[in-house]
């Protein structure tokens, strides 16, 4: 078994941003530049951008140099040419890096070749996938190989699902007692310019929902036993419900957060004997008019996604079928600057010394994770800090390599402190004891 950290000595680059010229990739590259120049790293980070077109990659560095007032970026940052459809070029990229930040999605189509190249060449790898089938499929196929090589493959390190996964751990660490259940509520705010999401995310959702049967088969193959329920069983809420706390209607959150948090809780329970926390995720959607609009769009989506012609329609006309939420161009810089998110966690548990299998929960806690634009700014911050944690906080990672969720990989690192410094803020709102 290779030792913890697994980074090979003497590689030219510590971090490589693969897919840096893509819509999300250029935000990630800019964030690496910002962090590399910051007080903690003081220009010591060796990094590169990677992708198919030298001109486009140079354009990304030129834009970052201009936005950050750092003309030296144009010459100091490496450029690696490689293509996701050419395995030898991916292997060549992996051999030059300690950690690859993979921004090329949808991951169900383009993710595995990068994981394979990284694992085979002793390189750790971070992605921002919100696709449970890809994430869990990579665990099944590469966990043992990654452990053998001593490398860390950490999925869902963007807005999906670092705020939720690390938020549950933060809530647990701040409760006096034993946390047994958490609900999270996501609220996204946009400015006067409104907001739109790049259609790459839309495509991932289309294929993810179309492929639910295969996800069930995959989970059967992995063959985990159900996690034990400790404490009072969490009540499931309806498809639409009114929240007194937020004075808004809410729906279950459709992202990967629940599946990622569950995998983290399984790891912590199995490997570190920690109490597994029950978790449910919701999103606030506003008043009754928003609910009706959303239900109509959702129904149409679920009907069309079942058939290939329907999937083609959804892919071709994202704006029409998402009521303008998803576009082929993505949001403007003004829309991004005006957007922010808040994720509120309501946790309950049992005070120290009380058996959680007896009686009702008697301690409560409310925590919050707040940040800038979720889709691109917070995603870039989270991804880059995950990469930096793999490089600079290696002694706090799990003993052996493998395919991990963020919470499993980073529960003992300083990731939350670093996210706080970069504007994704974790805080305790209230605590109460019965």
From TrEMBL:
<feature type="domain" description="Saccharopine dehydrogenase NADP binding">
    <location>
        <begin position="16"/>
        <end position="154"/>
    </location>
</feature>
<dbReference type="GO" id="GO:0030496">
    <property type="term" value="C:midbody"/>
</dbReference>
<dbReference type="InterPro" id="IPR051276">
    <property type="entry name" value="Saccharopine_DH-like_oxidrdct"/>
</dbReference>
<keyword id="KW-0812">Transmembrane</keyword>
<dbReference type="InterPro" id="IPR036291">
    <property type="entry name" value="NAD(P)-bd_dom_sf"/>
</dbReference>
<dbReference type="GO" id="GO:0009247">
    <property type="term" value="P:glycolipid biosynthetic process"/>
</dbReference>
<keyword id="KW-0472">Membrane</keyword>
<protein>
    <recommendedName>
        <fullName>Saccharopine dehydrogenase-like oxidoreductase</fullName>
    </recommendedName>
</protein>
<dbReference type="GO" id="GO:0005886">
    <property type="term" value="C:plasma membrane"/>
</dbReference>
<comment type="similarity">
    <text>Belongs to the saccharopine dehydrogenase family.</text>
</comment>
<keyword id="KW-1133">Transmembrane helix</keyword>
<dbReference type="Pfam" id="PF03435">
    <property type="entry name" value="Sacchrp_dh_NADP"/>
</dbReference>
<dbReference type="GO" id="GO:0005739">
    <property type="term" value="C:mitochondrion"/>
</dbReference>
<dbReference type="InterPro" id="IPR005097">
    <property type="entry name" value="Sacchrp_dh_NADP-bd"/>
</dbReference>
<dbReference type="GO" id="GO:0005811">
    <property type="term" value="C:lipid droplet"/>
</dbReference>
<feature type="transmembrane region" description="Helical">
    <location>
        <begin position="279"/>
        <end position="305"/>
    </location>
</feature>
């Amino acid at each position: 078994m290779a030792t913890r950290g697994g980074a090979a000595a003497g590689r030219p680059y510590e971090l490589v941003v693969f897919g840096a010229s893509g819509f999300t990739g250029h935000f990630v590259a800019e964030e690496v530049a910002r962090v590399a120049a910051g007080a903690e790293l003081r220009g010591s980070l060796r990094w590169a951008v990677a992708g198919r077109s030298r001109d486009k990659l140079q354009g990304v560095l030129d834009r970052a140099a201009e936005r950050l007032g750092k003309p030296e970026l144009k010459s100091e940052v490496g450029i690696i040419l490689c293509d996701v459809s050419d395995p030898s070029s991916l292997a060549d990229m992996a051999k030059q890096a300690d950690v690859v930040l993979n921004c090329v999605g949808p991951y169900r189509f383009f993710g595995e070749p990068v994981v394979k190249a990284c694992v085979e060449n002793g390189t750790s790898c971070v992605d921002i996938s919100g696709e449970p089938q890809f994430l869990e499929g990579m665990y099944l196929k590469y966990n043992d190989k990654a452990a053998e090589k001593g490398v860390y493959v950490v999925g869902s390190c963007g807005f999906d699902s670092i705020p939720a996964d690390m938020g549950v751990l933060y809530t647990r660490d701040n409760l006096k007692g034993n946390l047994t259940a958490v609900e999270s509520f996501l609220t996204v705010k946009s400015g006067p310019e409104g907001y739109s999401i790049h259609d790459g995310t839309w495509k991932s959702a289309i294929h993810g929902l179309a492929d639910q049967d295969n996800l069930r088969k995959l989970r059967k193959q992995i063959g985990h036993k159900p996690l034990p329920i400790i404490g009072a069983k969490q009540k499931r809420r309806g498809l639409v419900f009114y929240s007194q706390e937020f004075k808004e209607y809410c729906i279950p959150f459709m992202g990967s957060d629940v599946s990622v948090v569950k995998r983290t809780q399984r790891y912590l329970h199995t490997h570190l004997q920690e109490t597994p926390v029950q978790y449910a995720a919701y999103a606030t959607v506003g008043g009754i008019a928003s609910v009706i609009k959303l239900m109509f769009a959702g129904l149409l989506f679920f009907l069309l996604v079942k058939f290939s012609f329907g999937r083609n329609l959804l892919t071709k006309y994202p704006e029409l079928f998402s009521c303008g939420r998803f576009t082929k161009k993505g949001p403007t810089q003004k829309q991004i600057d005006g957007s922010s998110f808040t994720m509120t966690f309501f946790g309950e548990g049992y005070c120290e010394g009380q058996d959680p299998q007896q009686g009702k929960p008697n301690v409560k806690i409310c925590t919050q994770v707040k940040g800038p634009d979720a889709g691109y700014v917070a995603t870039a911050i989270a991804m880059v800090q995950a990469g930096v944690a793999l490089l600079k906080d290696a002694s706090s990672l799990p003993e052996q390599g493998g395919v991990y969720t963020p919470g499993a990989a980073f529960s003992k690192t300083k990731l939350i402190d670093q996210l706080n410094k970069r504007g994704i803020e974790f805080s305790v709102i209230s605590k109460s004891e019965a």
